[in-house]
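In this section we turn from sequence analysis to structure. A common task in structural bioinformatics is to predict how a protein folds when a small molecule is present, because the ligand can shape the pocket around it. The inputs are simple: the amino acid sequence and a SMILES string for the ligand, here zinc ion. Study the lines below before reading on.
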Amino acid sequence: MTVGELLQHGDYGIGTVQDLDGEMVVIAGKAYQVTGSGKINQLKPEQAAPFATVHFNAPHAQTTLKDIDKSALEQHLLEKYPYRNVFFAVKIEGEFAVMHTRAVEAQKKPYPSLTTATKTQPTFDAKNVQGTLIGYYAPALFQGVAVAGYHVHFLSADHQTIGGHVLDYHLKQGQVAIQPFATLQQHFPLDDQAFLKEDFDYGDMDRSINQAEK
Ligand SMILES: [Zn+2]
């Protein structure tokens, strides 16, 4: 799907870019690419995405949290809200004392497995950075449609300092919003012959997703 089409389905989200060329972060209706070199670009409508998840931002609940790390915050949301068996978006706008991300590097044909492609990935660190974290929680039942558990990306407010797939953080203070979904729509690439003909090893894929996305 092109970025232009994707943005008709939502104004916030996450994904990757054609050839696995970096991490996508969709914020306020604009799609950004964080490349393996750490450079942040705004994506053009004609650029393509092999995988992305978006939604229209309409938070269901909002709370201010202070001085909390990634695992504690994620656990807190599952305890505070009754949504562990459904999909929900999580959005945090605030200041992060520590932000630790990574970005996958572009792959060339013949494409390697996801595990090989993501084995060595550049990582990035920033301290005391303002920005937006966006992503999703998916119940374990839906591993494959999404990454089971939390999958979140980050973009600094200046769109320059740091971005990417979030490995860890410490939130100094921020507005934490969650938005559960009653409906999930999945798009498939019916015009992609390579995808249609591929003989996928689903057992290996599950392991690959877990290894690549945690
Ligand atoms: Zn990611």
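Helices lie at 3-6, 70-80, 114-117, 193-197, 202-213. As an exercise, try to locate the residues that line the zinc ion site and compare them with your own expectations.
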